[in-house]
Amino acid sequence: MPPCKPVDDLTSPDMNPQPPLDSRWPADVGIVALELYIPNYFVDQSELEAHDGVSSGKYTIGLGQKQMGFVDDNEDVNSLCLTAVSRLFSRQGFKPGDFGRVEVGTESILDRSKGVKTVLMQLFDDDSGDVEGIDNVTACYGGTAALFNAVNWVESSSWDGRLALVVAGDIAVYAEGNARCTGGAGAVAIVVGPNAALVFDRGLRGTHMRHVYDFYKPQLHSEYPMVDGPLSVECYLSALDRCFERYSNKFRRRIAPPQSAPISLQMFDALLFHTPFCKIVQKSLGRLVLSEYLSNPDDPSFAQLKQFGDVKLETSYHNRDLEKTLIEVSKNLFNSKTLPSLHIAQRVGNMYTPSLYSCLVSYLLSKQSSSDLLSKRIAMFSYGSGMAATMFSLCITGDPGRLERLRSGISTVPAVLDNRIKLPPEEYVKMMRHREKIHNLNDFVPTSGSRNLQDETYYLSKIDEKFRRTYQLYKGPAPSQPDVSSTHITSD
Description:
This protein is α/β, with parallel strands linked by helices. The chain has helices spanning about 45-50, 75-90, 115-120, 140-155, 230-255, 280-295, 320-330, 330-335, 345-350, 355-365, 400-410, 415-420, 425-440, and strands spanning about 30-35, 40-45, 65-70, 100-105, 135, 165-170, 185-195, 200-210, 215, 225, 270-275, 375-385, 390-395, 420, 455-465, 470-475. It is built from 13 helices and 16 strands.
């Protein structure tokens, strides 16, 4: 397969000719840098199975999860996002004045008026406060919406030459029951601009949106969502089918013959998905194989699927025989193109809006050398309940310097995962019950203070009588004092 080149020619037979590219937008717009924040606590999923009294393997094999991250009462979505952005500044050399747009994606709403973006402005002084952008809210899709807004701004007449910053953060928690094991937490900061390491394929987005109640949060007195599990899975898979169809149609229109044959999954070096839990990702890849087969049924590589030649996508979501066959047929593809992206998701769980981008970080760190990633194409599927979904693609630069800088910014992630603190399920449940009691309280000081935080982490220090939240930066233990409250326990 030839090296990946970003798709940027929108001219096609059914479109008006466009002016020269150089006169319309800067070159190689995409992701310049990434900073991922993973909180410090986790619970082991096999231990959680035993605690919950479910069959062994229900969470670890049935859902594909190993660990689940969570936070204490001293962290909320504001503090998670503050940590991601402040670390981007302090560790990667970016300055507030570098950015002309800051977009936020979250569904962890603390205030029905004041957005997370405004809280992040604490990190910007008055001279660097000329920044457009605002919060984006639609379940797990908000981070992708924020990313698209940032890319569109850089490619628009409104662009002033500065970078854009996208911040996605969430705390995924569920009431006691079947869904609780699919929680997680985290935040990601994404720098968007020209001359990027990960370049967007222009004009190649396949989107699908519908009105549906598969997952929603109408109870403002609670963090917990209302979830229809079977419907949510069906909505996710149906959205994937439609997005892949629309992405494929646009791809064929933008690639001149003879490359206008049915799209092949082999053209992608990696296939990444929003990950509520890892098992649905494996099923999702199987759905793409089914779509590919139905568009090219005479391909001999699909011989095992001939028995399903009469299957219709829209009526096949609960066909167990088909599902098992698709997982088997796509096994090698999954292992090579998708499994490398799931390392963080297996160990942290569902981060909601940052989920897809934690998979991107996993994939970028899955190779020993940057040279193994140069000029690769990545397919990305983003989904948010309610629902909104998009498939799009990125082309990794052929410039080693750009890619190495991006990878160096996320190089500490494996060590962070290994040095988190494992708590027993009983302690996790205790913390969840405490969160229930303090939700929406005012005149409150978190009981955990700065205990067991990683260095350079923002935390909630108090909520006053008017519900105003104050945050402080925990820089680490004083040099002359041992940190008796921050013993690290490895995940092993």
